[in-house]
Design a protein that fits this description.
The protein is an alpha/beta fold and about 425 residues long. It has 19 helices and eleven strands. The chain has a seven-stranded mixed beta sheet with strand order 7-6-5-8-9-11-10, with helices on both faces. It has a four-stranded antiparallel beta sheet with strand order 2-3-1-4. A hairpin with a 6-residue loop joins β2 and β3. The longest helix is centred in the N-terminal third of the chain and has 26 residues.
Length: about 425
């Protein structure tokens, strides 16, 4: 039995039955398995690919079964999903290998009965792949199936961008992104880290978007990545790095990061401030506060003060004190679907309806902590206007002492980054009000 495929099946089963996050489950399994780089990459592709294909893959498999796969035994369903994913979407994997190994895994997990069932379904797929061909045409439902997205998200994107651009966006969501590293400018330079990575056999290059950014297109286990382990760099996407530079924090300033966990932007702000000044990093989850502390310690930063606090009330605690404020608001995450294999299937339309009010409350509450003449940046990792432009427009309408200065949007299908929105607002000086 192929141990790599077996590990992938166990991961898919855990993710689909317990609701666990795919990156967490996969990291745990890979840590235990201790695969070489090639096997780790194959296992990762099997897990993320199967989870990302989600309901579209289940739709295909259902064409060869008498009942929905969701009603199958969870172990059998996981074996079928991983096996069918290889047959449908991994051209370099021989069909015979996908079928035979899946049968052996099913036998180990459930015995002869499940192995015969798996054998029958997968061999039917191999014999007649055209039976489950995705529909063509320009309906949201057909596009959703073809691009591994829930129909409601596709409809949301079509309302924002139109059909053709939505198709490009959905395809971009399915491209495996590179690992992005932000070098710690307090300890090293990008040139030195690039040299170290290349000496370690890692395919790395400079980011054209972020001055501190490095793109790793081929790498081993992150646990073994020495510069990362020793605090010389931090995992962070290029578009996310742009937020701290957009805020433009300066050494000696007092900065508040209102929704700070796990601390990627907070620590970047500290590095741009040359570890000089004061940063209050607030979050409402105690475990996430610990992540901020650990990240700051690993990177050698001592100006960050993590506090357990509701961002909606932070203006009451620090009224009119901050030079700069970052409101990186909780959002739907629809800009980072390419990086998180499972969230497209976990998200619900009701969340999108509730989030704007929370986002507005956080922005309004946080803004009270800003000095006259100070700068506030509102950002999200989503790309829909009701969580972005509409929030800013409502805030400016209700707060005439603030003015709009600038905004920037990153889109996966245009910028080859995570999707992200940021708007810069300035609080007027008393003479300007």
């Amino acid at each position: 039995m192929d141990k790599v495929r077996y590990a992938a099946v166990k991961a898919v089963q855990a993710i689909t039955t317990s609701g666990a996050y795919s990156n967490v489950v996969l990291a745990q399994i890979l840590r235990i398995a201790k695969f070489g780089n090639r096997d780790r990459r194959f296992c990762t592709e099997l897990v993320y690919g199967t989870i990302k294909a989600g309901a579209s893959l289940d739709w295909k498999i259902s064409k060869y079964m008498r009942y929905p796969i969701a009603k199958a035994d969870p172990q059998v369903a996981a074996v079928l999903r991983v096996g069918a994913y290889q047959i449908f979407f991994m051209d370099r994997v021989p069909d015979s290998a996908a079928v035979n190994e899946s049968v052996e895994i099913a036998k180990k997990m459930g015995g002869i009965g499940p192995s015969k069932f798996v054998n029958g379904v997968l061999r039917s797929i191999v014999r007649n792949p055209g039976r489950s061909k995705f529909p063509s045409g320009k309906s949201p439902e057909a596009l959703a199936l073809r691009t591994f997205h829930p129909t409601w998200i596709v409809k949301l994107f079509i309302d924002e961008f139109g059909f053709d651009e939505t198709e490009q966006l959905c395809k971009a969501d399915n491209v495996n992104p590179p690992l992005c590293l932000r070098i710690n400018s307090l300890k090293t330079t990008r040139e030195k880290i690039l040299e170290e990575l290349k000496e370690a056999g890692i395919n790395a290059e400079e980011s054209e978007i972020a001055p501190e950014g490095i793109l790793c297109k081929d790498h081993g286990a992150l646990d073994k990545l020495q510069p990362l382990r020793e605090g010389f760099c931090q995992v962070q996407d290029e578009s996310s790095m742009a937020v701290s530079r957009f805020l433009d924090p300066q050494p000696g300033e007092f900065v508040i990061d209102c929704c700070a966990a796990p601390g990627g932007k907070t620590t970047h702000i500290a590095e741009l401030m040359n570890n000089s000044g004061r940063i209050v990093a607030a979050d409402v989850f105690e475990t996430k506060i610990e992540h901020i502390k650990m990240n700051a310690e690993r990177l050698g930063i001592n100006i960050i003060e993590p506090i357990l606090f509701d961002a909606r009330k932070i203006g009451e605690k620090f009224s009119g004190q901050a030079d700069k404020i970052l409101v990186d608001a909780p959002c739907s995450g629809l800009g980072v679907l390419r990086r998180k294999a499972d969230i497209r299937w976990k998200k619900k339309p009701e969340e999108i309806e509730k989030l704007p009010e929370l986002q507005f409350e956080i922005l309004s509450g946080a803004a009270k902590a800003l000095k006259s003449g100070g700068t506030l940046v509102y950002s999200t990792c989503t790309i829909i206007s009701r969580e972005n432009e509409e929030i800013v427009e409502r805030f400016l309408k209700e707060n005439p002492d603030f003015v709009f200065e600038d905004k920037e949007i990153f889109l996966p299908h245009f910028d080859n980054t995570d999707g992200l929105f940021m708007a810069k607002l300035k609080k007027k000086e008393p003479a300007e009000v």
